[in-house]
Amino acid sequence: MLMVSIPAILLLGTISFFQGQQVDTETSQKYLQNEIRSKQDDLTDEVKSATSIINTLTFNASIGEMFESQSVKQSVYNAYLSFRDYLDPTTKLLLSLNPDLQDIDYYTDSKVAGLRGNIHPLSASDNPKFLKNIHVSENPQWFSDQENLYAVRAFPITVTPTTGTMVMLTYNKADFFRPLSKQAPLFLYRVTTAQGTVLFSSPGWKNTHFVNHTAAPLGTTGILLDVKYATTLRIGNRIVYWTIIGVLLSILEIVLLTRAFTNGISRNFLQLKGKIQHVIEKPREEVSFDTKEKDEFGQLSNAIGAMVTRVHELNDRALQAEIEKQSSKYDALVNQINSHFLYNTLSMIDWQARQSKNRTISIAVRELSTFYRTTLNHGRSETTLKNEIDNIKAYLTLQLVLHDYFQVSYDIDPHLLKARAINLMIQPIVENAIEHGLTESKKDAEIFISVRSEEGELLVQVTDNGVGIPPEKLKGILSKEAMGYGLRNVDQRIKFYFGKQYGLHIASKVGVGTSVTIQLPLQFEEGVQ
């Protein structure tokens, strides 16, 4: 019997050997892809952060007016006050929020050059040489030297039409490319611009042992990440070695016992693999790994189940921590606004409009005052439904002053106005409907806002009859990949304050319109029923 089983076992061993090699190769490729993707994502985040900062500055009309101040014959003292009271605090805030950012400098041919320490004449001889080659472009232009990395962008002509001004961000090169410095021993990296300028390269980039090469663009930033890796990239060779040892030991076993044992292991392995694959594909669905089996697979299954549960708990904590962080930033920015000055100024404008009998301006100013009052909400995140309704009515009144191609209607249960809500939960939805849903060509364009209660829940619905959202875009509109503050931020804030079972529900059909429903628990202020 043993002699009969030897050829079959040897054949099985040969097949296992080649399968082990194939698994080894596939594992190596996955490792390579994951390594490159990880570095690409880390560096893309750094570049996008810098791009966001520089766009915020160069498209800021208030900053542009400061550099244009001499052309409109403002006094030097007024320009100095503008820089002191607006530009300096903005610069300090950006530097404090971005630890890797070292300096923000401006270069201009305006007469305001020299009023602050970071505002330099554009024609100064000690300026960086690469400033001479700067031109208006969609993305910042990048340069580097031995220690620093520079992102430069010129102000567009729409912001500074009569002066030439540009802003330069300075980063510590080692800190900016920190993800690439912590490299695996099998990889080398190089970062270049679309024009071929080398911004960073790993020591030993020209090493002949690293002959394989691949390139990965960093999104639409115009920057390219080049990766070299060693000729032999192998991990997990022990799979092959243990396969050979297993085959040699299996020759001593009886064919039927070996076959039964193998079938049992394969069955348990496939079941466990199927559960793990289900968790990978649908991580939010519950998958039970619990088993009463006492063997190794039973222990492994229970251990994996405990690990998956722990990972879910950590993800939930990370999500709550991120929401708290964003909420803290929001509260900090809101608290910086001098609300009394704002309201007094708006009241003065309203009085002037009434004296001039300009009813449109008076209405617009009063609605603007209401909008800012309900938006700021004294720096608090929680509010009442009445404040949210006042906020969105003021916002829509202002929008109708600017755009008169749509109508608005309401169906609001007045008994629910004292219900608890969170600040600014309706306005982003309405703004999204106006900007992306409605078109001026549609004669009967309308936004309908309704408030009702149902089975202990508060339902606020915003419906438009606009262009609708394509199904492929609708699936990911609340996911992590969605860009901007908008709907995903509102959904996450609701889940943070009221629980995961609440949030946004979106239904849309192309050519018919979109309906967004805000689902909250029906809770009233203390002492109100």
From TrEMBL:
Its EC number is 2.7.13.3. The chain crosses the membrane at residues 239-261. It comes from the Bacteria. It catalyses: ATP + protein L-histidine = ADP + protein N-phospho-L-histidine. InterPro entries: Bact_2-comp_sensor_kinase (IPR050640), HATPase_C_sf (IPR036890), HATPase_dom (IPR003594), His_kinase_dom (IPR005467), Sig_transdc_His_kin-like_C (IPR004358), Sig_transdc_His_kin_internal (IPR010559). GO terms for molecular function: phosphorelay sensor kinase activity. PROSITE patterns: HIS_KIN (PS50109). Residues 337-524 form the Histidine kinase domain. One of its GO terms (cellular component) is membrane. Keywords: Kinase, Membrane, Transferase, Transmembrane, Transmembrane helix, Two-component regulatory system. It holds the Pfam family HATPase_c. This is histidine kinase. It comes from Schleiferilactobacillus shenzhenensis LY-73. The lineage of its organism: Bacteria, Bacillati, Bacillota, Bacilli, Lactobacillales.
